[in-house]
Amino acid sequence: MKSIDQPAPLPLSDFLCFAIYSANLAFGKAYKPILDELGLTYPQYITIVALWEEDNQTVSGLGEKLFLESNTLTPMLKKLEAMGYLERRRDPEDERQVLISLTKSGRRLREKSLKMDLTEETALAPDEFAKLQKAVVTLRDNLVKAVQERE
């Protein structure tokens, strides 16, 4: 019986998913000193950024924007509320919804976080940076769509 040659498995470094995963870890390490100074984790920081962009959002809307489930988002929101950066309150028009809004302290974090730009550290030209960001967003959106179509 003749055996069929199997292609050699790809090395880990050739997996796109690993490249994205390890780049995410590298971003986390690059942001860590700045985030430590602010007393925030990266997920807490992007939550604050999403609220700078659009304050007074529902928990469900914020979760969709951040790609976070409520069982991950709610404890983080409670912690940010305890830190004095945001407040949660029931929507008077729909008691089932909880609205999230920044406090003055949460809005002031923007001034402290101006040095969060890692564009220089990426060593990418502005046009390369923009193309890569757009390509990663397209990749993410395609994957989300594929998963939704399977469900």
Automatic annotation (TrEMBL):
Q: Name one Pfam family in it.
A: Staph_reg_Sar_Rot
Question: What main location does UniProt list?
Answer: cytoplasm
**Record's subcellular location:** Cytoplasm
Gene Ontology CC annotations of this record: cytoplasm
Please list the GO biological process terms of this entry.
response to stress
Which stretches make up the HTH marR-type domain? 13-141
Q: Which GO terms describe its molecular function?
A: DNA binding; DNA-binding transcription factor activity
> Which named protein is this?
MarR family transcriptional regulator
